[in-house]
Predict the structure.
Amino acid sequence: MIFLTAATRRTVIYPGLTLEFVVGPPPLDDDRPFLVTLRASSRSRAFLENLSIDPRRKHTRSISSEAIEERLEKILHVEGEFALNQLRDRSREIAVAFGWHAPLKRLEAIIGALLGTRSADHVTGAPAKARAAGMPFDPACLERLNLLCGELRTRAVPTLRETVESAAHLRNKAFFEAYFSNYIEGTTFEIDEAERIVFDHRIPDARPVDAHDIVGTFELVADPNEMRRVPERAIDLTNLLQQRHGRMLSRRPEVMPGHFKTAANKAGSTRFVAPDYVRGTLEEGFALYRELPEGMARAIFLMFLVSDVHPFNDGNGRIARVMMNAELVSAGASTIIIPTSYRDDYIGALKALTQRHRPGVIIEALTKAAMMSRLDFTVYPEILAELRRRHWFEEPDEGTPIVSAIQRLTRQPE
């Protein structure tokens, strides 16, 4: 059905299409031309028209109150407070001209709630209520988080217990975790270079920033007390993120360590949560996190939450994996390392949920990674040789097809 405002009321029916002409005011100067002889309502007029119609009527030509709120919130998010005030001012002029005082009153109440100048009781939808409370969130990201949370609640996700607890095991595994986590993000060193940086404190003159990235990550994940901390409240989640990020990248002031981003960021075609949605989306995600059992389920969810929000200017992938492994350490479980040879599968699994709404892929990918990471790291020369034998250091396009590679990576030591 297409509704058109006209001087007379009539209905024209075609196969699969009905044109409903309703009596209404004539066009205004800012009602833009549409097709040949028609005009389309201006944005201000369109909101007033939708709010002037009873949405309970059959074949209503109005959208729901929640949809109106979402559109107004999106205007505020994208165009800012000035655009919303401008829309309201023009709506007042139209309401006076057409006598639409009741819909104007509703529109002003909604806009006031979104701007925080009126009670949040004037809005009903979750995104609008969150904006009115000063904690707006990204609905698209929350949809993905709900999918992942639902999948994690309904399928068995194994939590592999840590069987080796020696100091040498924990320190060596932390080193490889820091090494591979940075390698994924493009901070690449040969393994012997990384050894000198971390264990011998020899920072290369040519690449001090990259070296400090590895050192900062290692110092964080090698701290057993730090890695046992998990959030109990939403504010704990934001505090933990900022504290750990600040510690991990403390030697890189240019990326604002410990501070959430103030400008939008993206990777390829993926656009992450906008800056003004970061805190609200983390809070909504935390509520879902609390519904999951401790251990692997929470670890997977928290890793994806941080990765999908991307709350910082840099270091988001690394801090997401730190948060994941902290969940595992606190539950007495074996931590997860993403080898170089498994990088594309891991990133592809993230994209499967972000771009195609397939939550099962990331669960399966991290479950496999957990299995391949459950090794004894106590004796450094022996574990280094074992990781080489398992092809952990190979680029994904090297060697045999991925199915064979996964079989090698997950094979237990003989």
Q: What stands out?
A: Strands lie at 2-6, 10-14, 17-23, 32-34, 38-40, 266-267, 270-271.
